[in-house]
Write a structure and sequence with these properties.
single chain; alpha/beta; Amidase signature (AS) enzymes; 2 domains; 11-stranded mixed beta sheet; two-stranded antiparallel sheet; 13 strands; about 40% helix; globular
Length: about 475
């Protein structure tokens, strides 16, 4: 088996090879690190590569494997953490000049659980400054680019994670999702991205327990996403909104059929402008669910566009958390973040409270809608990955022909507000060879059903065999 073949094997298969002593964790991490060193100079998927630590952890895993004492199914498996997740002793920048040399003393929950399970940390993946936008550029260096077309963004804010997984730089990647930030790069990069139920994976440490942020996996297969979720899910009293229930075996729960499920398909939620080619690919994917034994109906959920309230709370949160830092060092604040903070300083307290109350109204609409349906299917992104342009995420004027960020993420953020599980799975390629994603949304806390639906679709329309032609990448963009 070649090193490239090893780098594109799913984590579930790698785990079996390690258990059978047919593959050494050291051999595996050497292959992935060699590929990362060769490709990251172009992709910029990693802000920090922890190669020495990875080799130390791989050697420890190899010793456990030889003794037959592996800690679990991800022992020896390479993984990455988004650089918003604190890692003890490993630089954590949050994609920001303010934290460029920050080295935490404590692991976040996900970092601690992956470490305890024997995973091998490859490093910290790229993110826009403080995770504030849906592309992956910051002031620390070049932007993270899309492996399928290096002129285009990998998406954000977990863009480094999406690019790394798509390019074979580790089978498991962690991402966070406050408005689509796992599912956006998953759709743009042609991988799986799962936003679990809110609280399924605890968020600690964080300055805002009451927000919309979820942690979850980006992987090349659904089973790998289920495997990783099993590792990182479960309650933690330091996060008051974490679900106080032991995690399921999501790998086993993802198996089985979908017979009898009621499925709604909405091409635009009733208000989203969608590229016709994207709509056609997602619609074709949705029709397959009838072949799985589901009842499929085209039905918009009927709620009003929640963008105004979401945009207001999003901007106010950034203004409250980072406005003073921007005032102290404005040269460390990129224009797109400055625009968000400036806008977030304008609403009144009453405006903010109305927006927060609107979230309750949206959840009530969603709850009633899902009394009639088990799943909702939509396109994940209304467009393909945009070209990288300076300040592409500043609020554009209607005349410039570009969509504002909140238009691009219109299918994603409603389910951060409701907290429902949602997964993006690849559903085909456009005429120019760019991936498109199908979003599968489940009922409250129905993570297992979402994974099972995604696994059935993957079996009918597999995608992991498709790899970007990285050999043709130019040295610079």
């Amino acid at each position: 088996m070649s090193q490239t073949d090893i780098c594109f094997l799913p984590a579930t298969e790698l785990a079996s090879l390690i258990r059978a002593k047919e593959l050494s964790p050291v051999e595996l991490v050497d292959a992935v690190l060699e590929r990362t060193e060769r490709l990251n100079q172009t992709l910029n998927a990693f802000l920090t590569v922890s190669d020495d630590l990875a080799r130390q952890q791989a050697k420890a895993s190899e010793r456990r494997a030889l003794r037959g004492e592996l800690r679990g199914p991800i022992d020896g498996i390479p993984y990455s953490l988004k650089d918003l997740e604190p890692t003890a002793g490993v630089r954590t920048t949050f994609g920001s000049k303010w934290f460029e040399q920050n080295v935490p003393a404590e692991d976040g929950v996900v970092a601690a659980r992956m470490k305890a399970a024997g995973g091998v940390l490859l490093g910290k993946t790229n993110t826009p400054q403080l995770g504030h936008k849906d592309s992956c550029a910051n002031l620390l260096g070049p932007p993270c680019v899309n492996p399928w077309d290096v002129r285009r963004t990998s998406g954000g804010s977990s863009g480094g994670a999406g690019a790394a997984v798509a390019a074979g730089l580790g089978p498991l990647a962690h991402g966070t999702d406050g408005g689509g930030s796992i599912r956006i790069p998953a759709a743009f990069c042609g991988v799986v991205g799962l936003k679990p139920s809110h609280g399924r994976v605890p968020c600690y440490p964080t300055a805002d327990f009451w927000g919309r942020v979820h942690s979850g996996p980006l992987t090349r297969t659904v089973r790998d996403a289920a495997l990783m979720l099993t590792t990182i899910a479960g309650p933690d009293s330091r996060d008051p909104l974490s679900i106080d229930r032991p995690p399921e075996d999501y790998l086993t729960a993802s198996e089985g059929d979908l017979k009898g499920l009621r499925v709604a398909w909405s091409s635009d939620l009733g208000y989203v402008s969608v590229d016709p080619e994207i709509k056609a690919l997602a619609s074709s994917a949705a029709r397959l669910f009838a072949e799985f034994g589901c009842t499929v109906e085209e039905h918009d959920p009927g709620w009003q566009d929640p963008r105004p309230g979401h945009e207001l709370t999003y901007e106010v949160t950034f203004a409250a958390r980072f406005g003073e830092r921007m005032d102290e060092r404005p040269e460390w604040t990129e224009p797109s973040l400055k625009a968000i903070i400036d806008s977030g300083r304008l609403p009144s307290g009453v405006d903010l409270m109305k927006a927060l109350l609107g979230r309750t109204v949206l959840y009530d609409h969603a709850h009633r809608f899902f009394e009639s349906y088990d799943l909702l299917l939509t396109p994940q992104m209304p467009v393909v990955a945009p070209l990288i342009m300076p300040d592409q995420d500043d609020h554009p004027t209607p005349a410039d022909g570009r969509r504002a960020m909140f238009d691009r993420i219109a299918f994603a953020f409603p389910f951060n507000l409701t907290g429902q599980p949602a997964i993006s799975v690849p559903c085909g390629f456009t005429s120019v060879g760019l991936p498109a994603g199908l979003q599968i949304v489940g009922r409250w806390h129905a993570d297992a059903t979402v994974l099972r639906a995604a696994a059935c679709f993957e079996a009918a329309q597999p995608w992991a065999q498709h790899h970007p032609a990285l050999g043709a990448l130019p040295p610079n963009i």
